[in-house]
Amino acid sequence: MILTVEQIAEEALALPSEARALLADRLVESLDPAEDGYIQQLWSTEARRRRDDVRAGRVQTIPGDEALERVRRAFAR
To answer: Cα–Cα distance between 12 and 23 in angstroms, integer?
Structure first.
């Protein structure tokens, strides 16, 4: 039986969060190394955009420990 991408995604999304994170890591590691440079370029562009937003005052930062606590609360639901 051949599964569609939609079926695989549906099954994957039903996994516990830790298993989904592991699956995501394995999928990213399986990408073509030639694409890796392109992905790095996209992340670098995004990082610079975010840095510029902070420097320009368009976004407000919060301390790291507060950010982690927010994430923990969100996943505890």
So the answer is: 8
